[in-house]
Predict the structure.
Amino acid sequence: MEMWGLRYGELVERRAQRQPDRPAIIHDGSTLTYAELRDRIVRFAGVLRARGAGHGDRVVCVSENRPEVLIAAYACSRVGAAFVPVGAASTVPELKFVLADTAPAVVCVGTDAHAARSGEVTGLPELLDLDVWAGGHEAPGAFTGITPVEPDDVAVICYTSGTTGRPKGVALTHHSLHWNSVNTLLGLDIVSTDVALVNTPLFHTAALNTLTVNTLHKGGTVVLQRGFDARDCLDAIEKLGVTITFAVPTMLTLLERSPDFDKARIRSLRWILSGGAPLPPETASRWSAMGVPLLASFGLSEAGPSVTFRRPDDVARKAVSSGPAAPLTDLRVVDGTGAAVPAGTVGEVVAAGPHIAAGYWNRPDATRESFRDDGLHTGDRGYLDADGDLVLVGRLKDTIITGGENVDPVEVEEALLDHPSVAEAVVVGVPDTVWGERVTVVVVPAPDTSIGLEEVRAYLGHRLAKYKLPRRVEVWEAVPKSPVGKILRREIQLRLSE
């Protein structure tokens, strides 16, 4: 049976048929119309087919933000392959892990994909340069056909940090992404005249599948920046009439502190969606006073990512709320036995709905742990208020959120323990007014050695992405542990926060 609009990217192509001349994407001063975007998708699908990518294969894309990332994603869906976005700043070990985990048929690279271009990763298929093949310069021939896909076929695999020392690939199907889009458009006021600014990384499902995809589904315009820079962000808002954007709390603080900030420059904004880390109520109040509601939200890759969106008129009334569940999401808060708890009682947040991912790629044990019969066990602690709105209070897991990026402390610890001067290392997040949490490491040095912040950052700089590097190093004689040898992370965090 025909499933109209279910295939990932199909609704973007349908928009192109209906409004070919409208601007779809603005990037680095250039504009792609919807017709041009669709033409490049079709041509790049031909490139992927010529390189052997087909139904059930994976295509890894290592790139900075650029239109070609979206072109590659939608071209993958045309040939039936799963799209695997990877940040351009990924290190060689990080990239090697993703490549080993997905065994891709094709690897696409952007200008800044230094790890992929370095020659240190062996056994790669011939690299596809996005500048050439998806940039509209060359193509061996368009693929005008469409490989049939099933609703449960994997469309996108997004990697997210966990607590086991290795990232997990979240397997998002065509079905889950379609319903995530419907859920988002029902929960957020995105309209066809919107100009959406996207400057958070597209390898995050929030950037890819919240504002970007859904603005295109509505027929609006996406202003795509390579990354966040306060001056560039303010310039784009003012000059291009940006109406909506997404920002983690750190970005909002940096915008306010920018010497280029003037509330007159942001008057075109209707709202800002905030997520990735808890939104301080005082930040929301300041932006509301400037006429820009900050819509706190809760989401995670495993949910596609949409779970909750705060209503614009609740910014002042419910300063700590992340809002009600999106219309197609069912939320429960449960205790340790899995039983639902009354309103106002803290427990684990469980989400259910048609947008939930299929599980983790190649991780059956982790899938069984999080994806259960009663829904997705998020690992986040919170409660539902009397109105059913979600209030988050912490995390069951130890993941650090710094500047909206998730950092797995175990991954950092394992990398640092290879240093000859480190006997023990514990990584925790310490509250920070700008970054939300600061990655902090407590080091017990090996006998007759010493180590400090600069040496730690230099050592880890070749092994981990920049946002994972510690911003503070404390040298202690011993790490606090329980009688059974368990590291007392909470005690360490309290001591470091004093």
